[in-house]
């Protein structure tokens, strides 16, 4: 389908689904007539970037109220944007929008997004996979988290999302990542393990390793704010 025509279909259906003939651009009725006229001329060339972003934002809000059939239909349209749109920002927004839709179309689109050339899209995919759950989401996040060729930001995002998958395979992988060469990855692993386990060993990586090995490691005592402040002061003795 032609991209411009597909976006106009997207716009029209969102407006109808929202029950408002003006959609999110209702305020345009009240702006200066000159700018409204200029906007109309721009629309003749196709939907603007701002308009497409606004419609995707509105769609994300409306999706929870839609039936499974409607959501699947939207997943197909959003998948087209993820696979073909020239704007990485719009691809990323489409990924985040469809993350809550449980469908095979979503899984296929997120697989594409996970290998996108643009980091913004891959970061969005990590967040969307967290909402998906399931084996496909877990496996892709594990792959991204352990991929040496991936950027640190994406790997951190994948590790962060893995906190939602409290499974033996995930804990084993996170245990290996405690030895990662990147301190940023090590820190994020500790944060995810804290979320999964309810334990807090802070940045004590050895304690985390012992805990994952099944040892009953006591947590360090938590200092009060006053104690932390006092202990941080230099000693003059």
Automatic annotation (TrEMBL):
It comes from the Bacteria. InterPro entries: ARM-like, ARM-type_fold, PBS_lyase_HEAT. Pfam families: HEAT_2 (PF13646). PROSITE patterns: PROKAR_LIPOPROTEIN. Transmembrane segments: none annotated. This is HEAT repeat protein. It comes from Aureliella helgolandensis.
């Amino acid at each position: 389908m032609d991209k411009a025509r597909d976006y106009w279909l997207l716009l029209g259906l969102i407006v109808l689904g929202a029950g408002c003939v003006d959609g999110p651009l209702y305020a345009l009725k009240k702006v200066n007539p000159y700018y409204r006229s200029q906007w109309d001329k721009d629309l003749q060339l196709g939907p603007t970037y701002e308009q497409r972003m606004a419609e995707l934002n509105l769609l994300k809000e409306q999706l929870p109220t839609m039936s499974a059939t409607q959501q699947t239909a939207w997943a197909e349209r959003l998948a087209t944007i993820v696979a073909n749109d020239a704007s990485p920002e719009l691809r990323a927004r489409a990924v985040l929008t469809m993350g809550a839709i449980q469908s095979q179309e979503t899984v296929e689109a997120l697989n594409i997004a996970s290998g996108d050339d643009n980091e913004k899209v891959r970061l969005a995919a990590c967040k969307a996979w967290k909402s998906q759950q399931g084996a496909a989401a877990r496996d892709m996040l594990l792959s991204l988290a352990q991929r040496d060729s991936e950027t640190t930001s994406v790997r951190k995002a994948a590790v962060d999302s893995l906190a939602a998958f409290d499974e033996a395979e995930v804990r084993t992988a996170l245990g290996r990542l405690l030895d990662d060469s990147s301190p940023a990855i090590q820190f994020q692993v500790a944060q995810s393990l804290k979320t999964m386990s309810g334990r807090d060993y802070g940045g004590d990586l050895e304690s985390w390793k012992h805990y994952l090995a099944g040892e009953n490691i006591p947590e360090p005592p938590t200092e009060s704010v006053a104690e932390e402040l006092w202990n941080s002061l230099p000693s003059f003795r």
